[in-house]
Specification:
By secondary structure, the chain is mainly β. Among the domains are: 2-315, Methylamine Dehydrogenase, Chain H (7 Propeller), CATH 2.130.10.10; 325-396, Beta Barrel (Thrombin, subunit H). It starts with a strand and ends with a strand.
Length: 596
């Protein structure tokens, strides 16, 4: 057996209310961070996406070098990692500890040789260094509080500007970089500063809703843009490739396009009311796409040449960990995922879209597909909901306790495992409840056979006649609380995974163990999924790995190492040989498996 990597469906950028989120771009690629992952996403080519997970702490800012060969990314502990974009391995070139606290922003010089990283610290808030040796190339001083942004003039003579919470901008000459003068125009936090591609001017924006322009060589104030100003904090600014236009994104839920020569607003795009539509970051790609980031994690794409009042395209994606996923039973979607913040998204093979209707208020605990194509979901909000196609129906049922899992019997009855009971639901009405003497932790069903795994390390088989659950047998062999169960499509085999990483394969009709030697995982099994042939089982674990096991050859397996940084929460089959996995980093990865 063997495998090869398929498509990567990236997560959305992480956002924090009241703080800017740094986006950057190179050609048609945009770069952003989510947790410990750095995403390099091509806006024109869906198949070209990189997820780099080398950071030990949460990544906070990333930029691609002007040459396009390297990416530098900083994290919450003050480390900067420089890694290779060429090839599939993203080889680490260098790592430096540059600050005592969080990196808020970083920038390359025009020769791709020097980097300035800024953020939080004790003795200093910024550091300039050589990318290949880490040696200092100047002093970034003059601020008394955390630095929010840095920009370097890409032409010689080099200049650098830093923007801080102390309401000042410090203008540096270089190289080596040294303080030239502080600039005090803003009355509140300065959130972003950017040099134009031509290097003639740079712009600053801040929480006082003001936009200033400065001379790129001297740092002298050129103008303040006062035409139709923003009414909220401006979180980010970005320049057009020709340096003639500036785009600003604000917490007032608008994006403004400025004509620099006329000092006037050319276009204002309003994203609608609500905190989720506050704009917290942006970048103008060299490929001429304006990308602005909503608080919700949505990436809004605008066309500077179009007079449209709405984004030309909105990129949705999971912003939090994917906690459940399955192949869509039918319709336009190819798969559906639920996240730790209660969102449910459907992917049509090209882009994500939010499921219509009311989803869950908190973590989605599980999905189960009914024979007719309806998908049932349970969440930590103690709700059982019904998804028809890509839209939730108004119908819902409050469960008696927090759901641990959900399954559907052959007659369409929905079975929900709870803390101390199993509920049977039909047409959103509870028709039966089985109190248990053990604590259920997982559930699966095939036809009229229902398997319930417990915290007591046992699996109990029940028969369901449409009215009552009747206990038929108890299966033993797991070494920890049972955390995942899955029947083969023909109901012949039942796989049970537990919190120790062990998987036990049972013959369901004979109620006997087939093998208990599938124990390569080193942590909790979060998800099990059988291939359509019923002969191969995929397992996803907290240990970040995915394994594919063979029933005919129990000692053979495929190891997909580090398939989900932070842990794999869900695995499912997209086709006969196509496997998908998702987990803590919010990304969905696909794999093409060959059975030999």
């Amino acid at each position: 057996m063997s495998f090869k990597k398929g498509l990567l469906y990236p997560c959305a950028p992480v956002t924090t209310r009241g703080e800017p989120t740094k986006l950057s771009s190179s050609k048609d690629k945009i770069v952003y961070t989510n947790g410990r992952t750095v995403i390099v996403r091509d806006l024109k080519d869906v198949a070209s996406c990189i997820a780099y997970s080398g950071h030990v702490h949460n990544a906070t800012a990333a930029r691609i070098s002007p040459t396009g060969f390297y990416c530098a990314s900083g994290d919450a502990s003050g480390n900067v990692r420089i890694w290779d974009l060429v090839g599939e391995e993203q080889t680490l070139k260098a790592e430096y500890k540059v600050l005592a606290g969080r990196i808020k922003d970083l920038e390359w010089d025009g020769e791709s040789k020097r980097i300035i990283a800024v953020g939080d610290g004790r003795d200093k808030f910024g550091h300039a260094f050589m990318m290949d040796s880490g040696s200092s190339t100047g002093d970034i001083i003059g601020h008394s509080k955390i630095i929010n942004a840095v920009s370097i003039r890409q032409q010689r003579p080099y200049r650098a500007a830093t923007a801080s919470d102390d309401t000042t901008i410090v203008f540096h000459q270089g190289v080596p970089f040294k303080l030239d003068k502080p600039i005090k125009n803003h009355a509140k936090f300065v959130q972003d500063v950017r040099f134009s591609p031509s290097g003639d001017v740079f712009a600053s924006v801040g929480s006082d809703s003001k936009v200033f322009l400065y001379d790129g060589k001297t740092g002298d104030v050129v103008a303040e843009l006062t035409d139709s100003p923003h009414t909220g904090s401006i979180m980010a600014c970005g320049w057009s490739p020709d340096s003639k236009s500036l785009v600003t994104s604000s917490a007032d839920c608008t994006v403004k396009l400025w004509d620099i020569d006329a000092k006037k607003v050319k276009t204002t795009w309003s994203l609608g009311p609500g905190v989720s539509n506050q704009q917290v970051g942006n970048t103008w790609t060299p490929g001429d796409d304006i990308v602005s980031l909503s608080m919700s994690g949505d990436l809004n794409l605008f066309d500077a040449r179009a007079a449209s009042a709405a984004p030309t395209r909105v990129l949705h994606a999971p912003q939090k960990a994917v906690t459940a996923g399955l192949r869509a039973p039918g319709g336009s979607a190819t798969f559906v995922v639920g996240t730790a913040d209660g969102r449910v998204l459907a992917h049509d093979g090209a882009e994500y879209a939010y499921a219509g209707g009311e989803a869950h208020a908190s973590l989605v605990a599980g999905f189960a597909a009914a024979p007719g194509g309806t998908v049932h979901s349970v969440g930590v909000d103690d709700k059982l909901r019904e998804l028809e196609g890509t839209t939730y129906t108004p119908a819902s049922l409050s469960t008696g306790a927090q759901p641990k899992g959900v399954a559907v019997a052959g007659d369409g009855t929905v079975l929900v495992a709870e803390v101390a009971a199993v509920e049977a639901v039909r047409s959103n009405q509870k028709v039966f409840e089985l109190p248990t003497k053990f604590a259920p932790s997982a559930i699966a069903a095939m036809g009229d056979v229902v398997a319930v795994g417990g915290e007591d390390q046992k699996v109990r088989l029940y028969s369901w006649d449409g009215k009552v659950l009747k206990e038929e047998a108890t299966l033993e062999g797991n070494k920890g609380p049972v955390s995942a169960l899955a029947f083969t499509p023909d109901g012949q085999h039942l796989a049970a995974g537990d919190s120790t990483g062990k998987i036990v394969l049972f013959d369901a009709p004979k109620r006997s163990m087939v093998t208990g030697r599938w124990s390569f995982h080193t942590a909790r099994i979060n998800s099990l999924a059988w291939a359509p042939d019923g002969q191969h089982l995929a397992s996803g674990s907290l240990d970040t790995h995915v394994y594919v096991w063979s029933v005919p050859k129990p000692m053979k397996n495929i190891a997909l190492k580090n398939a989900g940084p932070g842990g794999v929460n869900s695995v499912w089959w997209m086709s006969t040989t196509g496997l998908a996995s998702a987990g803590a980093d919010g990304c969905v990865r696909t794999w093409e498996v060959t059975f030999h």
